[in-house]
């Protein structure tokens, strides 16, 4: 298969982790006889520094004409504590999601057996946890009108959802549930928010089309607690933009490291793949960043094009590296490997995948 993949490394640890994924994807292309073409572009603080624009036109054009985007991370401390900043790196990612119409963000969360003790949660609570969060990505409070009063004494963020936005998202989540354990949990705050009541009404009506899926509802505050108390109860979680952002960081505690969580953002035309973690600037250039979330995002990219065996080859390599402790320090305190070493190891596993047997 021929694929053109736009590479947007971004800020902080973004470039070093993305580099490992490109390496891994090249190994997949070689092994399975595909032609993957990679082209890099600027985004985030890196783009502001050079062009004063977190999403330069050339970057957007490249993404539009590519089959998929592999995204690193975004954010820079010099903007974090500066409420006066007019342009922020994050705007680059938000605009990219909006312009590409990437309305659904899919975040799988799984406890790796080998890493069960890495999590601060009790092993018996998380062993076997396996869920996927369907986070709406181009609506809600992230994209509503924003303003600060002239006197600086008040500020507003508007949260809006349309039935259409909810339905297209819910269809995807119901379909995912049909392929999994047939349980869908809508997380909202319908006891307080009007938009949440619209989500509940719309999703309930749609459920008639998916009679094999069991639909239930949780308020987001309770969901945050249940995620820690009993994560195994969840199969597919469907939720709006901001709740999904918060819950997915929380869910990463189950896997033992946020450095393991991958995501796919999809729309009708384009698709983007990125780790859920941020740019982790304190770790940049130290070779300590975990590349696995990015590498697993690359596996989701392959899944998106039905390259299932190829995606499995990546996931298998990741399993092996975890089994053999060829991991960065976030999940291997004693004898850790650098970002690049982990990437090299995955690359070599994929190149000779037939020769490896972990059992
Ligand atoms: C994420 C990130 C982004 C978000 C930021 C960087 C804008 O936290 O992808 O989860 O809030 O969506
Ligand atoms: Mn987030």
From TrEMBL:
Pathway: Amino-acid biosynthesis; L-leucine biosynthesis; L-leucine from 3-methyl-2-oxobutanoate: step 3/4. Keywords: Amino-acid biosynthesis, Branched-chain amino acid biosynthesis, Cytoplasm, Leucine biosynthesis, Magnesium, Manganese, Metal-binding, NAD, Oxidoreductase. Its EC number is 1.1.1.85. PROSITE patterns: IDH_IMDH. Its cofactor is Mg(2+); Mn(2+). GO terms for molecular function: 3-isopropylmalate dehydrogenase activity. It is an enzyme of class 1 (oxidoreductase). Mg(2+) binds at residues 221, 245, 249. It catalyses: (2R,3S)-3-isopropylmalate + NAD(+) = 4-methyl-2-oxopentanoate + CO2 + NADH. Substrate binds at residues 97, 107, 135, 221. It is found in: Cytoplasm. The record marks 142, 189 as: Important for catalysis. Gene3D superfamilies: Isopropylmalate Dehydrogenase. Residues 4-346 form the Isopropylmalate dehydrogenase-like domain. Binds 1 Mg(2+) or Mn(2+) ion per subunit. The keyword Amino-acid biosynthesis applies. It comes from the Bacteria. Catalyzes the oxidation of 3-carboxy-2-hydroxy-4-methylpentanoate (3-isopropylmalate) to 3-carboxy-4-methyl-2-oxopentanoate. The product decarboxylates to 4-methyl-2 oxopentanoate. HAMAP family: LeuB_type1 (MF_01033). Homodimer. Belongs to the isocitrate and isopropylmalate dehydrogenases family. LeuB type 1 subfamily. This is 3-isopropylmalate dehydrogenase. It comes from Salegentibacter chungangensis. The gene is leuB.
